[in-house]
Specification:
Elements lengths: L20 H6 L21 E6 L13 H10 L5 E10 L6 E2 L4 H10 L2 E11 L13 H6 L3 H14 L3 E5 L21 H15 L5 E5 L25 E8 L13 H16 L5 E8 L6 H15 L3 E8 L13 H11 L22
Parallel strand pairs: 1-2, 1-9, 2-4, 4-5, 5-6, 6-7, 7-8, 8-9
Antiparallel strand pairs: 2-3
């Protein structure tokens, strides 16, 4: 849901030790509380992990320059297996719009590092106004009608020519009302999101760009309040490879009216809907997640969440920490030494796999076993 951190490729912005059960019960609001999501613990499977890193570490956001990834790895003490970044369709103004190409240099930088790229590709233009998702030139009906077919086809052909597997997180957080591709805003009508998704997916398949692993990623806020029904937005099993969730512990940050929430309070309701009703059988990626430090203990939140996640949420097989300052919120782990140590200690567990994927060849990308 973070917005000012959404960046075009190569551009500036326009997004540990497990605690004892007694500690979890004593501090239920800090991490995955005992009552949040408590099925019988299962054996943990390997989990891809990584970050969407802003420019605050080195002055340049990855992956055009990978110094931010190197700096993040040095902080954590472990290589990332996922690197997330974003690109819109276009930059407007000036007129005519300038359309972004498939980011081959950045994708190759990530691959050579040993991680799997997560390309967050949005059918929008930048710059973008946070409070107003209206972009009349980029309505869902424009995508469905074929207005951007030539651009999408070229983008897909360039993806095929690059040839390596990557996650494509297309038009994420569609169940909200803050992006131009959400139904109910920007002139978009019910049913158009699914039609647009399938249209773009079909173009990729028609040109043989099967190295894209399609990630469908709604927003999780701990309830259905203010969000569209997920089942009406799901493109169908044959059009989705991974399900996904984005979610944030905003705490009491002044930018929004929220309260401190544990990982389970944020993600459990959406996790249950995805695994039981919307996308049963699909692995799940956390496309964006992070915690502020407003109103609670951020380090403890991280330690609890990453320690409990592998067994309490076994279908989550990949995660991306949102390591970017956005709207003044201290999402990055480097905002305090205590938080950095907590994240480092938790992510060093063997269940979180490192950067060993330079030679990855199989598509779609499967969870690690």
């Amino acid at each position: 849901m973070t917005r000012s951190a959404r960046t075009a490729v190569g551009k500036k912005p326009a997004l540990a030790v497990a605690l004892l059960l007694a500690a979890c019960l004593a501090l239920p609001a800090q991490g995955i509380a005992a009552g949040d999501h408590n099925p019988r613990p299962q054996q943990a499977h390997p989990i891809y992990w990584g970050a969407w890193i802003g420019s605050q570490l080195t002055g340049t956001a990855p992956p055009a320059n990978m110094s931010g990834v190197t700096a993040f790895e040095q902080l954590v003490g472990k290589g990332l297996s996922l690197v997330g970044f974003a690109s819109p369709f276009a930059h407007c103004p000036p007129t005519p719009c300038s359309f972004y190409r498939f980011p081959v240099p950045g994708m190759e930088n990530v691959r050579q590092y040993g991680a799997i790229p997560i390309l967050n590709w949005g059918s929008e233009s930048i710059p973008w106004i946070v409070a107003d998702p209206t972009q009349p030139e980029f309505q869902l009906s424009d995508v469905i009608s074929g207005r951007y077919d030539e651009y999408i086809r070229r983008f897909a052909l360039e993806a095929r020519a690059w040839g390596h597997p990557f996650f494509l997180r297309f038009d994420w957080e569609m169940n909200g009302n803050w992006f131009p591709w959400s139904e109910g805003v920007n002139g978009n009508k019910p049913g158009e999101f699914v039609a647009a998704w399938r249209h773009v997916h079909d173009i990729f398949n028609s040109v043989g760009a099967t190295n894209a692993t399609w990630v469908w990623c709604p927003y999780a806020n701990g309830s259905k309040q203010g969000l569209h029904d997920l089942r009406a937005l799901y493109p169908g099993h044959q059009y989705v490879n991974w399900a996904c969730m984005d979610g944030y512990n905003w705490g009491t940050a002044p930018v929004n009216s929220h309260s401190w929430k544990s990982f389970g309070q944020i993600f459990s309701p959406t996790y249950e809907r995805l695994t039981k009703r919307v996308a049963p059988g699909k692995p799940i990626l956390l496309g964006e997640f992070a915690s502020s430090s407003y109103g609670g203990h951020k380090a403890l939140w991280i330690r609890n969440s990453l320690s409990k996640l592998p067994t309490r949420f076994p279908r989550i097989r990949g995660l991306v920490w949102f390591d970017t300052v956005d709207r003044g919120i201290d999402w990055p782990i480097e905002t305090s030494a205590t938080v950095t140590r907590a994240f480092s200690g938790a992510i060093r567990k063997r269940v979180y796999v490192g950067n060993r994927y330079s030679e990855l060849a199989a598509s779609p990308i499967n969870p690690q076993h």
